[in-house]
Amino acid sequence: MNLCVKRAAAGLLCLTAMIVGVWAAAAPYSFFSSFPLPGHAWVVALPAYNEHLTHDVGDLYLALMTISTWAVLRPRDETFRLVGAAWLVFSVLHIAFHLDHLRLYSAVDAVDAVGNVVALGTSVLLGGLLLLPGATGNETGRW
Predict the structure, then answer these.
(1) CA distances (Å), 17 to each of 102, 114, 118, 132, 135, in order?
(2) Are the C-beta atoms of residues 6 and 139 closer than 8 Å to each other?
(3) Domains of the chain: which residue ranges?
(4) In 3D, which of 102, 136, 104 has the Cα closest to residue 118?
(5) Among 2, 23, 30, 37, which is least packed, fewest CB within 10 Å?
(6) How confident is the model over 45-69, as pLDDT tens digits?
(7) Furthest C-alpha separation in the chain
């Protein structure tokens, strides 16, 4: 697997984690009621609101952002595998929960249900990509 592809995958995971993490940690109720955009009810569809839990989810994403950033800045096969494994553990369990609860979206919200699955599935795919064998060896590499 190409180093640039792995760095890009880790970078996308980092960006996702930063957006979700900062929002949920800094403004838990806003995140709960408005994620991913105002008018879309991905989180609020699963009541009830819990400030502590929402804040903790933000903190988890910030931790994932930290290790993803490390992989982008210090690319090593071992680092990519560790980051990929961490994202897979989280993302597979996360998407499994949401797949089991898609019934909470009404037919009108079908776009949100599909968007939810695509977004969460992308994290699974990117995490899996980081586990693929690579040609990075232990070299730092350049873009």
Answers:
(1) 22, 20, 16, 21, 26
(2) no
(3) 3-131
(4) 102
(5) 37
(6) 887 999 999 999 999 999 999 999 9
(7) 50
